[in-house]
Specification:
10 strands; 255 residues; AAA+_ATPase; alpha/beta; transport; 10 helices; six-stranded mixed β-sheet
């Protein structure tokens, strides 16, 4: 199958220069190359999605941006700062938050305590106000405030993982497979929340997602990854309509 690489459209209205810039990034697991020279930008105020088959390298890129594993070659900059070799905790202090694949809430801690862990990175500034913001965004969490994270449903754990990441007041939110294993109604609630954060607060979001239909509907721009290489890029709606994307990622799925 021939692969067409499109020029990314102009940034969305209100979006500025690239907040996150990835150039020539190569990541290895031992001697196996997982990312083979990735170039990608996320502009201020955008939702950008990365789609691709399972095992394409999407989560590896997300983890590489956050410093674990490290890029062996190439450069990653955030708000003009080279973060390629920074430790993960220093990357977090620059106000990048990650909601990793598999949710990974603290299972023995309550919902409230999980939110406290998210706020610790900025020394609990605005804590009470931010807790109320999270409860407005995800009312289910307010109902579960004293419940241990490990006893929540999958959807509730995903809401908590995102809320915990947001407690740090990030400039950039990295979301890895937020819809994985969740019922369609819960997926809609989570994607609606992401859209609302972007519209109302201008939050910049980089989203890795196997559900290409939902991701491309949500995103201003998208990239397609195949075997550790970016093969296509373009506007979210443009990629949704692209015959190659439809054949590879949308046939037999949502339309």
């Amino acid at each position: 199958m021939s692969v067409r690489v499109t020029e990314a459209p102009a940034p969305v209205v209100g979006a500025g220069q690239p907040l996150l810039s990835v150039r020539g990034v190569k990541t290895y697991y031992g001697n196996i190359i997982a990312l083979k020279g990735v170039d990608l930008d996320v502009n201020q105020g955008e939702i950008v999605t990365l789609i691709g088959a399972n095992g394409a390298g999407k989560s590896t890129l997300m983890m590489t941006i956050f410093g674990s594993p490290r890029a062996r070659e190439g450069r990653i900059t955030f708000a003009g700062t080279d973060i390629t070799q920074l430790p993960t905790h220093e990357i977090a202090r620059l106000r990048i938050s990650q909601s990793p694949e598999g949710r990974r809430v603290f299972p023995r801690m309550t919902v409230y305590e999980n939110l406290q862990m998210g706020a610790a990175i900025n020394d609990f500034a605005h804590f009470d106000e931010d807790v109320e913001r999270m409860f407005a965004l995800f009312p289910r969490l307010k109902e579960r405030i004293g419940q241990r994270g490990g006893t929540l449903s999958g959807g509730e754990q995903q809401m908590l993982a995102i809320a915990r990441a947001l407690m740090a007041r990030p400039k950039l939110l990295l979301l890895d497979e937020p819809s994985l294993g969740l019922a369609p109604l819960i997926v809609k609630q989570i994607f609606d929340a992401i859209r609302e954060l972007n519209r109302k607060e201008g939050l910049t979001v980089f989203l890795v997602e196997q559900n290409a239909y939902h991701a491309l509907k949500l995103a201003h721009r998208g990239y397609v990854m195949v075997n550790g290489v970016i093969t296509m890029s373009g506007g979210g709606r443009e990629l949704l309509a692209d015959p190659q994307v439809r054949a590879a990622y949308l046939e037999g799925g949502h339309h």
